[in-house]
Amino acid sequence: MRRVRVPTFRSLRGRLGLRGRVILTFALGAALLSLALSTAVFATSREYLVGQRERSAERQTASHADFVRSVLYSSDTKPALVLQALDIPVGTTLFLDQNGKWSASDPAVAFIPSAIPAELQESGTDGGSATMYITVAGNPYIGSRMVLNDAGDILYELSPVLELQSTLRILRITLFSWALVTTAAGAAMGFWASRRVLRPLHELAGTAARISGGDLDTRLARSQDRDLDTITTSFNAMVDSLQRRIDHERRFFGDVSHELRTPLTTLVTSVSVLERQRRDLPERSVRALDLISAELDHTRRLLDDLLALARSEAGLHPGDLEPVSVETLLSHTLTRSKRSADLLTVATEDRVAARKLSLERALVNLMDNADRHGGGLVAVTVRRDGEFVAIDVDDAGPGVAPEDRERIFERFTTGRPARRTAGGSGTGLGLALVAETVSAHGGTVTCGDRPGGGARFTLRLPRLRSRRLS
């Protein structure tokens, strides 16, 4: 049985976002306030209008009762004629109950007692008079009851209040409409307030993005708001501290590069001198010389990769972005790395914004990785992938296990033994340097399976839509 996941309050908050929650809060607040005010206004207005109408009906019934009392008991006129002689409003009906004998001002009324609601007939036991809001045959009326004499003759008057109902209906619609308008105004106010509230956050996000892009001189302007000024000051202090650390790391990288390269160059020179004399050396010394030479070469490559990775992570990218033809760059890279140009297949002529030296080094690292750990480079393909240019680097090795396809881009990760070959060992930094370089170009690098076997490393770089780099 499939379970239906009911959205929780926390998940709804996450979907709405801060701006949506601010707008919803203002809208709900305005809706609740307008609903409360509308309800209070309608209840007060209804009570006032109905009360006023009841008092008017009561005065009208008293006037009619005086007329009936003065005419009916001073002459032999029939009760129905007396009631019909009254000048009553249209729709109003008078009933006279003389000890169970009923008369009406409207001759069309057949069964008179059924026209008088029981609550009106039973009311007025304390003084004999009563006025109330009643419903007869689905229509609203103000019903009045007044005792005429000591014999218990009772005059009833039913006055229609359709105009009152219409007034109340119009009032209800008007208040509801204004409640909707107030809710919409509250939502608009919430939108305006959310923009004012989120503007500093957008400025903060924009400044942080420029800083992460390498513009370390960017700072937030001081705010007149004391609360925001605290955030601004703290943010600028954090960026100042970050810039000092980066400057310190730059100097450190320069010192490390100089201090390590100098003795390494001396060792390489010394080994070169011994290499020229290897014919005069014993066999054991030759083997030791080969080990030393291999280790020096590995140390040199490790130092180069470490410094390149450190510079990339610190945002110290050599050169500026410029329009680069992917086809030309790959052809040049294959030629310089002494690989066959026949490995290249180009399905698109798109260009990318790149730093040639950095991107070329990343491509060489991928190709070296294919030769060293993947059984050899078999193909390099350039294709369009939506808004990106995709570069597929295929090898003939055993592939990369799914659980290792993200881990291999970490530092000092050389893959499982199945991918290690006798072609030489890597520094464990090549793929990490590839990932950092591609990320600095606004792209991504992933690892997957090559159709037919082997691994496929795919670089995706944003393609240029025009011939000019903006």
TrEMBL record:
Q: What is this protein called?
A: histidine kinase
Lineage of origin: Bacteria, Bacillati, Actinomycetota, Actinomycetes, Mycobacteriales
For this UniProt record, the keywords arranged alphabetically read as follows: ATP-binding, Kinase, Membrane, Nucleotide-binding, Phosphoprotein, Transferase, Transmembrane, Transmembrane helix, Two-component regulatory system
PANTHER family associated with the record: SENSOR HISTIDINE KINASE TRCS, SENSOR HISTIDINE KINASE YKOH
Q: What is its main location?
A: membrane
The record's listing under InterPro entries reads: HAMP_dom (IPR003660), HATPase_C_sf (IPR036890), HATPase_dom (IPR003594), His_kinase_dom (IPR005467), HisK_dim/P_dom (IPR003661), HisK_dim/P_sf (IPR036097), Sig_transdc_His_kin-like_C (IPR004358), TCS_sensor_his_kinase (IPR050428)
Q: Where in the cell is it found?
A: Cell membrane
Span of domain Histidine kinase: 255-465
Catalytic activity, as annotated: ATP + protein L-histidine = ADP + protein N-phospho-L-histidine
EC code(s) of this entry: 2.7.13.3
SMART domains registered for this protein in UniProt: HAMP, HATPase_c, HisKA
Q: Does the keyword Kinase apply?
A: yes
Q: Which residues span the membrane?
A: none
Alphabetized GO MF terms: ATP binding
What superkingdom does the record give?
Answer: Bacteria
The segment(s) forming the HAMP domain are 195-247
